[in-house]
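We were asked to recover a plausible sequence for a given structure. The inputs and outputs are reproduced exactly as logged, with field labels preserved.

PROBLEM: sequence recovery
POSITIONS: 436
GIVEN STRUCTURE:
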C-alpha cells in the first residue's frame, strides 16, 4: 500500500456499502480526494453526494480517476468488476475494505469484535464506553450509531481503532488485535464455510493473530467457543495472551433482550482488558444510556397504533432472540413478524432451524428470499420462501415487498408490535409503513 501520507486520491467501488462509506469518510477527513461508484443509488450514496463526494451510479472502467493512488472495494463487488479490472491493469493498488483498514491501522492498538451475532452492537457499545471514559477512539462499525457524527464512523485517534471484524470471507483476519472479542460462534455464511470445522478454524486463526500480551474476550456460555479457546490455551499462554471468559449479567439497558445483555457484558470486559483504569461505573452509565443502533431492534415509528421495529437479523438464532426481545418488551402485544430470508444457500443449510423459530411468531408474513448478487448458485434455486412456509405450516407468503406491505396494512391492529426483519431490502417496508 502507498504510504497514507502519499495517498492523494482514492476511488471506492461499492461506495454505498456500510463499511466502504466509512473508509471513504475517514480518508476524506485526512485530506484525501475520494470518488466512488455503486451499482444503484440509495440513501447512503445520496448522503455521500450531499457531503461532496463524487459518486457515479453504475460501474465502468472510465470511473477510475487517471490519478488514483488506491482503489478500495466492498465485498458485494464481484472480482470481475470493470473498475477493479481497470485498476489492476493500470497497476493501481486494490484493497478490500477490511484489508485497507488493517493496513492503515497496522501500528495502532486494535479492539476487534467478531462472532456470528451481535458484532455491530458490541462494537458500538465499546466505542461508547471508551468515549465516556475520556478516550478518543476511531470506531468503524457496520451500522449507524446515534452520537457518531458520520453514523458508521467515529473519527478519533490514529493509534486506537475499534472495529467490527466480519467473519464473511475471513475479513477479520485482516486485523492484528490487541483485544479480540469473540461474541459467539454458530455456523453461518455456508457458501464460504460449508462445515462448522472450517468456520471454527477461521476464528482459531483470529485468536492466533492477537498481539503478544493482548487479550481474547470470549463468551463462556458458547460451548463451541469454549472448545476452541481450550484448544488454543497453551499457544496463547506462550505469547502472554490473556483469555477472559465472560458470562451474561443483567444490567439496566435501554435495548431489550438477552443478546444485548450479553453484548454489554462483552463490551465492558473488552474495555477493562484494554483500559483497566476506566471506572466500571462509567461503563455501566454509558451502557444504560446506550440508545441502540440502526436496524438492530430499531423502533422506526408507528402504523395504525402499532410499534414498528426494523431489525437486520437474518440467522435463525437472531430471529429467535429478536422475537423473545419483542415479547419481553411488549408482553401484552401480538407479535407480527415480516421476514425476508437472506440468500438461498443459507436458507437451505439452516432450513429446519428457520422452520422452528419462525413458528414462534404470532403472525408471520414470509417474503421471498433475497438473492444476494454474486453469491447465489443455480443448484440452490429450488429453495424458496413458499417451501419454507409449507414446512412451517402457518403464515402467508409475499412474493414482493409491495405485497408484504399490502398484507401488513390489512392485518396490523393497535394491539400489535410489528417486526420487519432481514438483511436484504426488507427495511423499506418498515419505513414505508410508518410514513402513512
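RECOVERED SEQUENCE:
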Amino acid at each position: 500500500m502507498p504510504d497514507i501520507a502519499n495517498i492523494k486520491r482514492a476511488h471506492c467501488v461499492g461506495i454505498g456499502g456500510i463499511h466502504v462509506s466509512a473508509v471513504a469518510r475517514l480518508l476524506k477527513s485526512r485530506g484525501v480526494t475520494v470518488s466512488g461508484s455503486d451499482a444503484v443509488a440509495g440513501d447512503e450514496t445520496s448522503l455521500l453526494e450531499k457531503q461532496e463526494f463524487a459518486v457515479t451510479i453504475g460501474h465502468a472502467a472510465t470511473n477510475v480517476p487517471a490519478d488514483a493512488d488506491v482503489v478500495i472495494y466492498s465485498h458485494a463487488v464481484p472480482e470481475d468488476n470493470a473498475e477493479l479490472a481497470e485498476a489492476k491493469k493500470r497497476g493501481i493498488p486494490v484493497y478490500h475494505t477490511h484489508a485497507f483498514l488493517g493496513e492503515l491501522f497496522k501500528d495502532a492498538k486494535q479492539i476487534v469484535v467478531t462472532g456470528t451475532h451481535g458484532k455491530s452492537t458490541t462494537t458500538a457499545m465499546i466505542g461508547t464506553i471508551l468515549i465516556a471514559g475520556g478516550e478518543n477512539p476511531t470506531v468503524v462499525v457496520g451500522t449507524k450509531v446515534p452520537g457518531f457524527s458520520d453514523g458508521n464512523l467515529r473519527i478519533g485517534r490514529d493509534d486506537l481503532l475499534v472495529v467490527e471484524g466480519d467473519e464473511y470471507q475471513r475479513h477479520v483476519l485482516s486485523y492484528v488485535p490487541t483485544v479480540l472479542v469473540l461474541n459467539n460462534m454458530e455456523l453461518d455464511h455456508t457458501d464460504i464455510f460449508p462445515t462448522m470445522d472450517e468456520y471454527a478454524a477461521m476464528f482459531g486463526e483470529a485468536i492466533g493473530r492477537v498481539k503478544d500480551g493482548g487479550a481474547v474476550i470470549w463468551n463462556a456460555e458458547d460451548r463451541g467457543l469454549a472448545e476452541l479457546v481450550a484448544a488454543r490455551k497453551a499457544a496463547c499462554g506462550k505469547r502472554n495472551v490473556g483469555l477472559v471468559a465472560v458470562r451474561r449479567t443483567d444490567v439496566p439497558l435501554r435495548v431489550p433482550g438477552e443478546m444485548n445483555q450479553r453484548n454489554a457484558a462483552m463490551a465492558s470486559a473488552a474495555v477493562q482488558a484494554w483500559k483497566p483504569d476506566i471506572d466500571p461505573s462509567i461503563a455501566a452509565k454509558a451502557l444504560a444510556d446506550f440508545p441502540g443502533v440502526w436496524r438492530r431492534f430499531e423502533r422506526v415509528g408507528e402504523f395504525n397504533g402499532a410499534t414498528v421495529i426494523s431489525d437486520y437479523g437474518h440467522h435463525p438464532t437472531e430471529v429467535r432472540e429478536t422475537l423473545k426481545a419483542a415479547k419481553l418488551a411488549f408482553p401484552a402485544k401480538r407479535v407480527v413478524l415480516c421476514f425476508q430470508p437472506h440468500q438461498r444457500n443459507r436458507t437451505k443449510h439452516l432450513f429446519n432451524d428457520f422452520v422452528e423459530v419462525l413458528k414462534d411468531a404470532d403472525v408471520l408474513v414470509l417474503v421471498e428470499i433475497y438473492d444476494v448478487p454474486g453469491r447465489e448458485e443455480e443448484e440452490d434455486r429450488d429453495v424458496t420462501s413458499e417451501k419454507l412456509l409449507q414446512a412451517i405450516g402457518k403464515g402467508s407468503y409475499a412474493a414482493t415487498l409491495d405485497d408484504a406491505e399490502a398484507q401488513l396494512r390489512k392485518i396490523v391492529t393497535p394491539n400489535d408490535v410489528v417486526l420487519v426483519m432481514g438483511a436484504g431490502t426488507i427495511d423499506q417496508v418498515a419505513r414505508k409503513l410508518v410514513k402513512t
